[in-house]
């Protein structure tokens, strides 16, 4: 009898462990991601362009991408080189210069019926207290935002939609215009870490029950 119960508990633990090992289904969205330049390399921004206050000489990037989270988001494919972007824009008192890279993404990431424009680079001269969003607005026309201040389109691309779901999901990724750090699963389901913890609890519980019954026996 004890062997049967122990075997059942271990089978249950194995089933949960197997569930923890199975990858969660990625839930993808089509959206404008926002990037900072750190040491000449692109880094996914931990704040949105409305709150970031770049210094003179910085570079900000925008890339239209399809991804489930920040780790899978496509980076701008143009180098974050301030000297190349702003070489013809001298420094001026009372203002700052911000390099802007706009990457409209690949054809594979484009909404149905649309073709991504060619990438653009600009040098924005803006007031010293301007945000990255202000710098973008200074060099790119036809920006479109939704009611939650989520950046939906740059230069009219895409024509419609805003962070549209590409595959079934429960929540969108961090929004480009007011995003916080986006280093999560992004799928709305339980994480592998959580399921692993459940499996560990089941294993330990089964072992404790077996030891207690063994002592009584």
Secondary structure layout:
Blueprint: H1 2-21, E1 29-38, E2 41-44, E3 58-67, H2 82-86, E4 95-103, E5 120-127, H3 132-139, E6 144-145, E7 151-153, E8 164-165, H4 192-216
Parallel strand pairs: 3-4
Antiparallel strand pairs: 1-2, 1-3, 1-8, 4-5, 6-7
Question: What does the model show?
Answer:
The structure is a single chain. The N and C termini lie close together (11 Å). The longest helix is centred in the last third of the chain and has 25 residues, at 192-216. The strands form two sheets. Strands 1, 2, 3, 4, 5 and 8 form a six-stranded mixed β-sheet that branches. Strands 6-7 form a two-stranded antiparallel ribbon. With 217 residues, the chain is α+β, with helices and mostly antiparallel strands. The protein is 27% helix and 22% strand. It is globular, with a radius of gyration of 24 Å. Helix 2 (82-86) links the parallel strand 3 (58-67) and strand 4 (95-103).
Short description:
By secondary structure, the chain is of the alpha+beta class. The protein is 27% helix and 22% strand.
Properties at a glance:
alpha+beta, 6-stranded mixed β-sheet, two-stranded antiparallel ribbon, 4 helices
